[in-house]
Design a protein that fits this description.
This protein is of the alpha+beta class. Helix content is 14%, strand content 22%. The chain has a 4-stranded antiparallel β-sheet with strand order 1-7-3-4, with no helix packed on it. Strands 2-6-5 form a 3-stranded antiparallel β-sheet, with no helix packed on it. The protein is flat, with a radius of gyration of 21 Å.
Length: 153
């Protein structure tokens, strides 16, 4: 088993007709597939069908009922639970297939974290670590700006 792609999500535009949304990233469990409509977890009935051989043909499709409305951004993503279910007993068998599946799951979790981090605000590699990113209390009709030292908001 291998993870040969870094893809963890795919996006579509709803048209109020199409209910089926294919995805081509490997997953071990249909419950790991999540659907968002305009960034909010879908409240629709979701039916996930995985391709039988995730090695040869990773992915599957998800049916969203009712169909997402016209121009709604539909995001299908894999969200692996942050668990480790392999139990190795000292002196016991070391099954290569289940061990590799555990490694694949770890890579999938790293991929989903990498994708999420790529959408976060951050500083450049040259930041010296002294920048204070503590947000002030929320105040209506106020903007965030850097102070004159450019070291805090």
């Amino acid at each position: 088993m291998t993870i040969e792609t870094t893809t963890v999500k795919i996006a579509y535009l709803g048209d109020a007709v199409n209910k089926d949304f294919p995805f081509n990233f490997k997953t071990f469990d249909q419950n790991s597939i999540k659907v968002y409509e305009d960034g909010v977890a879908s409240a629709a009935l979701l039916t996930v069908v995985l391709n039988l051989d995730q090695e040869a043909s990773p992915g599957g499709s998800v049916n969203v009922d009712p169909a997402p409305a016209d121009l709604v951004r539909v995001t299908v993503t894999r969200e692996e639970p942050l668990t480790q279910v392999r139990d190795y007993i000292t002196g016991g068998k070391f099954p290569a297939e289940s061990h590799e599946q555990g490694l694949d799951k770890a890579v999938q979790i790293l991929q989903q974290h990498s994708e999420e981090l790529s959408r976060k605000v951050g500083v450049g590699i040259n930041d010296d670590g002294s920048t204070d990113f503590t947000l002030p209390p929320y105040v209506s009709r106020r903007a965030l700006v850097w102070d004159v030292s450019l070291k805090k908001l």
